[in-house]
Amino acid sequence: MNESKDGRKTNRFSKPASTDSYPLVLDIEDFKGDFSFDALFGNLVNELLPSHLEEETDASEGHGGSDVMPNGHLRTPSDTGKSAQGLSSPLFPEVDALLSLFKNSCTQLIDLRKEIDGKLYNLKKEVAAQDSSHRKTLTELEKGVDGLFTSFARLDSRISSVGQTAAKIGDHLQSADAQRETASQTIDLIKYLMEFNSSPGDLMELSALFSDDSRVAEAASIAQKLRSFAEEDIERQSMAVSSVMGNATASRGLEVAVSNLQEYCNELENRLLARFDAASQRRELSTMAECAKILSQFNRGTSAMQHYVGLRPMFDLEVMNADTRLVLGDPVSQPSPSNIASGLSSLYKEITEIVRKEAATIMAVFPSPDDVMSILVQRVLEDRVPKLLEKLLMKPSLVNPPPLEEGGLILYLRMLAVAYEKTQELARELRGVGCGDLDVEGLTESLFLSHKDIYIEYEQASLRQLYKAKMKELRAETQQSNESTGTIGRSKGASIASSHQQISVTVVTEFVRWNEEAISRCTLFSSQPATLAANVRAVFTCLLDQVSLYITEGLERARDSLTEAAALRERFMLGTSVSRRVAAAEHAAATGENSFRSFMVSVQRCGSSVAIVQQYFANSISRLLLPLDGAHAAACEEMASAMSSAEGVAYKGLQQCIETVMVEVERLLSAEQKATDYRSPDDGIAPDHRPTNACTRVVAYISRVLEAAFTALEGLNKQAFLTELGNRLHKGLLNHWQKFTFNPSGGLRLKRDITEYGEFVRSFNAPSVDEKFELLGIMANVFIVAPESLSTLFEGTPSIRKDAQTFIQLREDYKSAKLAARLSSLWASSS
């Protein structure tokens, strides 16, 4: 089957008249491309089937009215008759043609397959032959490539060898050229050296090089080389021991050269410095840089650097005097640290700005700007700043310190701290601007070294001076207050109590503030933790001494008021008349009460002062002492020791307070207690269940005076004081009641007094005192019960029999009821 020109496939066989012989020609091209079996099959059978259909169509059209059978053939009337007769024609007459066609197609397909198989076999043989030939060719190519690589390696090795040889030749040529150049320079140097070696001081016959201003740099370089060579030769000759006259002559000749070269270098250096100065005045930075570069060959340019720094206007004497006027201000008035700080800030800011401007010039001019900046900053810290500090920080005498009216030692210390702090800030600013390898911090520390070595002694002396001045001020205020107020219109007791200077927490707070300021200076001046700890401990010890002395003296003065009140009380008891003695006693009682309150206020303020010191130690001092071994523990011991003296005085004063209270209690009991209070007559009047007037007065008095104690004391101190007072009150009441005789109604009155006293002392929160007053209440029953009931009264409390026996003797019926004999037999039998 082939495709026609219009793209349609056509059968490639001819159709003869007979339908059973259809020659079919199949082509391999039919199976190429997009092969479709359905299309092939359709093309094969459609050659036969359409002709049959056309014949049937024609037959149906000729007969008309025929029916179509189910198998697709047309039924005619004759067919109907034949069918009825059992006679029929073939249903599909093209079957034979199709079978023949299919067989022919199968045969051709088999032939085509064989043809294809043959072609494939031939192609395989050809491919195998080509592959073998290709492999052989690749093997030969690999061998050729290997040979080529080997050739390239030999070529590379040869090239490398040639290159090394060329490099060696180049090095030799360069070395030879350098040797030639060196030899040429050496010849020139020898020629120049011979010129300088002609005669001492003769510089007129030198080459034009040494007088040509346009070749100054070259002349300086050559002169330095000649000088270096000559000096090394002289040094070498001086170290060698030789007796050859020629050597001695050579040495002398080189000495002449060295002398001439030194003279020439000095002259050249001076010329360059003069040119440098002239360019500096005209601000010609390029000329300055050229001169500086040439001068760097002379002593590494040190002379040029120092010359430049030395001519800076900032180091003029007038400028330094202006510094002093700016910082110190009016020389007549006393300088203040705040003004000094402001002046130093302004001055140091000005210096920093000048150095920053100079740094820009130095960077543009000098080949080694860091070295120049180092010299400049060093000059600032060794010349300008020290001259100011010398006038600012004048050490006062520790033997005869200046009075506080003139500033005292504290003014020197404050100015020292301000100057140190501001100078440290200046050093940091200069370090930021740039100062090379200069140790700015160490140089700054050296400025204050003489002050810091004995700083702590000045700090301690200043604290002592401040304390003395404060004490003097307080004494003057007290004296002035006493003189201005006088004693007119006041009771004598009040005048005694108020005439003494009281402890002031404000004053102690001022002590702490002084110490805080001193500690801040210690922190500023002490860079090492151990040194700081030692200085802090020394300063804190001063505070402990001051506070201890101040509160101890304050407590002693308060004790003196108690002592004066006691003396006044004894003196007034010697009055001539009873009325005078009573008035004097009441006056002395008021004095004692005021002195009691005054001492309690002192104790309270003493406790507050100690608390302030302890808080200050915990917050500010403790952490600073830790770096030094044992410093913290030693400071704690010193603090305890310093406060122990005040505690001793306070203890003695509290004992005097108790004594003062008990003396007044005894006076009130003696004056107010009547015999009839506990021995009321049996007149049929109902007994009085109120406390006696003496009891009421005593309780009221103690309540009044203890208000100050309850406020001033706290903790264990308060408990100990109230316990001691309760015991003394118990003992005093026992002694007082033994002066009276009691009947049953009096016993009830006594029991009421004891209850009143017991309820009062219960506010002391002292269990031992409460127990004693409870036992007193039990013993008071001895005055109430009948004589025959006394034996059973103390069965539960045998511990109070002794005191009870004493109380029983105070019964009104003690003798009439013969209680002595009865109780003696009773005590004997019970024991």
Automatic annotation (TrEMBL):
InterPro entries: Sec10-like, Sec10_HB, Sec10_N. Keywords: Coiled coil, Exocytosis, Transport. One of its GO terms (biological process) is exocytosis. The keyword Isomerase does not apply. Residues 96-212 form the Exocyst complex component Sec10 N-terminal domain. Residues 54-87 are annotated as: Disordered. The lineage of its organism: Eukaryota, Viridiplantae, Streptophyta, Embryophyta, Tracheophyta. Residues 218-821 form the Exocyst complex component Sec10-like alpha-helical bundle domain. This is Exocyst complex component SEC10. Residues 77-87 have a biased composition (Polar residues). Belongs to the SEC10 family. Pfam families: Sec10_HB (PF07393), Sec10_N (PF20667).
